[in-house]
């Protein structure tokens, strides 16, 4: 019975996509769990089960104690080179290639949609594939960021100007620079599919 119900849902979604003229997909952390990346809120294993995000991953926490911030964030940056897109990422990319999906809005920062082949992507929470100096604005890759952490006695990546590099992601307390284009695309959509998101994070849950 469960398989029948699931098949009915799949068929329904397929029909909706075929009939839609402008489908937009919104993805969250659940899409990447199949690639070995933990989500944030799953009871017993979510990232926020053991960590208070406001004390570690807010912009205030970063500015007050970048060493503690990178103690938490470094493993999340390192895992990027070891993970690959899973069937969900690939299916979304394939649907875009076929012309069914017009835009992908993602809350994820892992770059897996790009690796899968998706092209029109709005990353509302930024990306871990690069970092920016808080002082001069210089951009570096995540690979170079890790090297800077390794060579620093404090395990904090400093820029030549003396500023601290910050992953190009949106931390708690920061504005979402890509929110306006995400709102624009969501308003254009006659069908919006949500995949792998609990829709608990604002303002992405209001799209």
TrEMBL record:
Keywords: NAD, Transferase
Statement: the UniProt record of this protein carries the keyword Transferase: yes
InterPro entries membership: DHS-like_NAD/FAD-binding_dom, NAD-dep_sirtuin_deacylases, Sirtuin, Sirtuin_cat_small_dom_sf, Ssirtuin_cat_dom
Ranges where the Deacetylase sirtuin-type domain occurs: 3-207
One Pfam entry name: SIR2
UniProt-recorded Gene Ontology molecular function terms: histone deacetylase activity, NAD-dependent; NAD+ binding
Protein name as annotated: Deacetylase sirtuin-type domain-containing protein
Record-linked PROSITE patterns: SIRTUIN
């Amino acid at each position: 019975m469960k398989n029948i119900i699931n098949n009915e849902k799949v068929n329904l979604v397929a029909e909706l996509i075929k009939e839609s003229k402008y489908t937009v997909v919104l993805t969250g952390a659940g899409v990447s769990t199949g690639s070995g990346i933990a989500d944030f809120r799953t009871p017993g294993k979510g990232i926020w089960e053991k960590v208070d995000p406001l004390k570690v991953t807010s912009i205030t926490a970063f500015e007050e104690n970048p060493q503690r911030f990178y103690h938490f964030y470094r493993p999340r940056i390192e895992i990027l080179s070891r993970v690959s897109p899973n069937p969900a990422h690939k299916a979304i990319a394939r649907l875009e290639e076929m012309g069914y999906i017009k835009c992908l809005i993602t809350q994820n920062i892992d770059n897996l949609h790009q690796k899968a082949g998706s092209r029109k992507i709005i990353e509302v929470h930024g990306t871990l594939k690069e970092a920016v100096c808080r002082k001069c604005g210089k951009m570096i890759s995540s690979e170079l960021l890790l090297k800077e952490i390794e060579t620093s006695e404090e395990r904090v990546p400093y820029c030549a100007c003396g500023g601290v590099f910050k992953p190009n992601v949106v931390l708690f307390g920061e504005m979402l620079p890509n929110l306006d284009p995400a709102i624009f695309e969501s308003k254009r959509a006659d069908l919006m599919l949500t995949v792998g998101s609990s829709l608990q994070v604002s303002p992405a849950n209001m799209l």
